[in-house]
Write a structure and sequence with these properties.
Layout lengths: L2 H9 L2 H21 L3 E10 L1 H6 L7 H7 L3 H7 L2 H11 L3 E5 L7 E3 L4 E5 L9 E7 L3 E6 L4 E6 L12 E5 L1 H4 L9 E6 L2 H11 E5 L6 E8 L2 H58 L5 H38 L15 H23 L5 H47 L1 H37 L5 E15 L2 H26 L6 H5 L7 E6 L3 H4 L9 H16 L9 E7 L6 H13 L5 E5 L8 H4 L8 H6 L10 E2 L7 E4 L8 H6 L1 H13 L2 E5 L18 E7 L6 H11 L6 E8 L3 E2 L2 E2 H4 L13 H6 L1
Parallel strand pairs: 13-20, 14-18, 14-19, 15-17, 15-18, 19-20
Antiparallel strand pairs: 1-11, 1-12, 2-3, 2-9, 4-8, 5-6, 5-9, 6-7, 10-11, 16-17, 21-22
Helix pairs in contact: 2-14, 6-8, 6-9, 9-13, 10-12, 11-12, 17-18
EC number: 2.7.10.2
Subcellular location: Cell membrane
Enzyme class: transferase
Length: about 775
């Protein structure tokens, strides 16, 4: 990117930039001087969360603690409508007092020599301002919007003035010398509560300190530092009271909740104790451990007794069988281990009698009556023993049934011990939990009562409200810098938009950037009428230099041929008025002044323009006369004018024919060109515009170079698309483009006034300062 060129694109509009800067900086300066500065007042408070946790009855999780450290709830509270509404009401911000001054906006006052008493509610106050002045009769009140004046006679405020939403009374201090305030003017602004609340919310900012947990920073922006400090002090005071009130409410709610829970747990504990008592009674349990020992021992005893009884039965059966199988003379056993003393005694008696019988038998025979009687007694006694054993056996069997029943009962009681122990354990566990909770609730209630007796806020003011007297708005340096940039940006944007929307051709870049394949031949500057005639061989005019440069560039496009014949240069354009005739005329003069024989032919048969440069009649005989009659000699229609050049001949278009296309398509014109090539070094053709008629395309193949003329700030860039299409279709041959009527002033980075004729400039001529800097 050519920064120099880009700079001069915009620099040519420097008056716009200068005017915009003057207006912008002037407006900014007047604004700074006329507006009341806005100051920022700050305060820092600290909330001791650890101190608050110590007084809490119910602890919270670490996640909740980390959330509380963010102080989101506190910020939400301070910025809430209800909280700020209390600030507005406590400070009575619905009425604001100002001293009227004229160098800056009205300045806020905390003390004025009068007091306003609204006659309507603060919520219904209109948003309005009044000018107030004191005089000897009372107060003069003016509505600036309607210019309506109200007079309040006296200073006592007893008069009710229709149309005013307030009454006014002189303050106690001002009553001592009211005349001291006669020269002062005041402004009273009334605002409904909703407006004041909204303004307060917009001017207040509450942020947590990221580097210090539990710390809040309060910011208030306003034109009155005193008022800002009042607001922050009131916010801190209300917030401190809110913390204490909230703790008191929490204390009351906590104690009430604990009392309710203690009462509920007391009932639940009593209910569990009653259930335990009923369970012990129903199961005949005094102490569970003794109950387990007793039931276990009873089971063991019953099993032992049952086993002993069954053993006696077995021994009894054995004794019966043994006695039955023994003879009458055999001794009976006494080691049956029966637990029947009578049976054991009978066995011993039986054996004693048997012993007596044996003694008798030793002294006598078996037929001894004493022996026989003794044997008979033994039989009877043996039978009695058997009868006793049968009776004992029957008794044992009965005892066995009883023992089995008792054993089953004891076993069942022993098996139920785990279940009863579990049931009782659950009851004891529930009772224990209830008792522990009950004791804990009692403890918590005592703690709550103690904490309630010493309730205090955990808020500490680290930095009292203080005002930074460097205004935050308007800040002179940044504001003026912004105005300076704004003053540059506005014209820059306008110029940029103008340049972007500009579709006209201005310079070589407009052509080369779009179609670099099309050669750019040069520019012809805009000149006045006097300069048109000054294109002689020794001319130092701009037009002469421009056309000489143009000829040099055209020379590079001319084809190299061995046969020495004249070159045909065709001048055309898109539309009428772009200066093709002007360019053809001056290029013909320039070439002829270089000792070249030149023939200038006006081929625009529909709208010829060359006659204007020679001051001759438009209908002079010329090309049309030859084309319509080949027998005519075209050379007799030539005009020589030594005022311009002795080497240039001109063939004008002649009378405007009704059929120009038919004339240009016949062979006469081609014959003319071939003959002229042998006579002249250059044949210059001034043809018709290519986008209006097709005449030029009928002979364009005869040209060696086609010069397509565009006009500065007139020809649209879309024309280049058409030219490129003509080249692709070979409707135009060996095309180069020139720009006509270019301004000699610096435009788009070029200065044509200094480009041409530089060799003739006075060396002492001073350049503009910006040219010196950027050259």
């Amino acid at each position: 990117m050519d920064f120099k060129k880009e700079f001069f694109k915009y620099f040519q509009y420097w008056p716009w930039f200068l005017l915009s800067l003057i207006i912008s900086l002037g407006a900014a300066f007047l604004f700074i001087k006329s507006v009341s500065p806005t100051y920022e007042t700050t305060a820092v408070i600290f909330l001791d969360k650890k101190k608050e946790e110590k007084t809490q009855i119910i602890t919270i999780s670490s996640d909740q603690k980390s959330k509380d450290d963010n102080l989101e709830d506190e910020i939400r509270l301070i910025t809430s409508n209800d909280f700020l509404l209390k600030v507005v009401k406590n400070l009575n911000f619905n009425i604001s007092y100002f001293q009227k001054v004229y160098n800056i906006q009205n300045s806020y006052l905390n003390a004025v020599p009068f007091v306003l008493y609204p006659t309507v509610s603060n919520d219904s106050l209109p948003q309005i301002a009044y000018d107030i002045k004191l005089d000897q009769q009372g107060f003069i009140i003016v509505d600036p919007a309607t210019k309506q004046t109200f007079n309040s006679n006296g200073y006592d405020g007893k008069q009710v003035i229709a149309g005013l939403p307030f009454s006014i009374q002189l303050s106690g201090k001002a009553k001592q010398d009211s005349s001291a305030y006669f020269d002062n003017e005041y402004v009273v602004r009334l605002e409904p509560t909703a407006v004041v609340l909204n303004n307060l919310k917009e001017s207040l900012v509450v942020l947590p300190d990221e580097n210090s947990k539990g710390t809040l920073e309060l910011f208030h922006k306003g034109t009155s530092p005193i008022r800002s400090r009042q607001i922050l002090n009131e916010i801190i005071s209300l917030f401190d009271k809110y913390i204490v009130i909230n703790k008191q409410k929490s204390f009351k709610n906590t104690v009430a909740y604990l009392n309710q829970r203690i009462k509920s747990f007391s009932k639940e504990k009593d209910s569990i104790e009653s259930a335990k008592e009923n369970f012990l009674k129903n199961n005949d349990i005094l102490v569970m451990d003794s109950y387990i020992v007793d039931k276990t021992k009873d089971k063991y005893d019953k099993n032992e007794s049952s086993m002993l009884n069954e053993r006696q039965i077995a021994l009894t059966y054995n004794a019966i069988n043994d006695i039955k199988s023994s003879s009458i003379t055999s001794a009976l056993g006494t080691d049956y281990n029966l637990e029947s003393p009578s049976v054991n005694q009978m066995l011993m008696n039986y054996n004693s009698r048997l012993l007596e019988s044996e003694l008798i038998l030793q002294r006598a025979q078996k037929n001894n009556p004493a022996y026989i009687s003794l044997v008979s007694q033994l039989r009877v006694q043996k039978q009695a023993i058997l009868n006793s054993l049968e009776g004992y056996l029957s008794l044992l069997k009965q005892n066995n049934k009883v023992n089995r029943s008792e054993q089953s009962i004891a076993n069942s009681a022993a098996k139920s011990i785990p279940t009863k122990d579990r049931i009782l354990g659950n009851i004891n566990s529930k009772l224990g939990m209830k008792e522990e909770t009950y004791v804990l609730l009692l403890q918590k209630r005592e703690e709550a009562i103690l904490n309630g007796a010493i309730l205090e806020s955990n808020l500490t003011t680290l930095n009292s409200p203080a005002t930074n007297y460097s205004p935050v708005f308007p800040q002179p340096k940044p504001f003026m810098l912004g105005a300076f940039l704004f003053g540059l940006l506005i014209p820059f944007g306008i110029v940029y938009l103008k340049l972007q929307l500009d579709t006209k051709i201005h310079n070589e870049d407009d052509i080369q950037n779009k179609y670099p394949n099309i050669p750019f031949l040069g520019t012809i500057p805009v000149i006045d009428t006097k300069e048109i005639l000054d294109n002689s061989a020794n001319s130092r005019s701009i037009i002469a230099e421009a056309t000489r440069t143009l000829y040099s560039n055209i020379s590079y496009l001319l084809p190299t041929v061995k046969e020495k014949k004249g070159n045909v240069i065709l001048f055309t354009s898109s539309f009428q008025g772009e200066g093709k005739s002007f360019s053809a005329f001056h290029n013909a003069i320039t070439i002829s002044n270089l000792n070249k024989k030149v023939l200038l032919i006006g081929v625009d048969l529909r709208n010829p323009q060359l006659h204007e440069y020679f001051n001759i009649d438009k209908d002079v005989l010329g090309l049309t006369n030859y084309l319509s009659n080949k027998s005519e000699d075209w050379k007799k229609f030539l005009i020589k004018d030594s005022n311009f050049s002795e080497n240039m001949d001109t063939l004008f278009a002649g009378e405007i024919p009704p059929n120009p296309t038919q004339l240009l398509t016949n062979s006469n014109f081609e014959t003319l060109i071939e003959e002229a090539k042998g006579i002249y070094d250059f044949i210059i053709l001034d043809s018709a515009p290519v986008q209006m008629v097709s005449d030029t395309f009928n002979f364009s193949q005869l040209a060696d170079v086609t010069v397509f003329v565009t006009k500065y700030n007139f020809t649209d860039k879309s024309t280049l698309n058409q030219v490129n299409n003509f080249i692709k279709k070979e409707q135009l041959k060996n095309v180069g483009i020139i720009i006509n009527e270019v301004s000699t002033r610096s435009t788009y980075g070029y200065n044509y006034g200094y480009s041409y004729g530089y060799q003739y400039q006075d060396s002492k001529l001073k350049k503009p300062w910006y040219k010196k800097v950027f050259s």
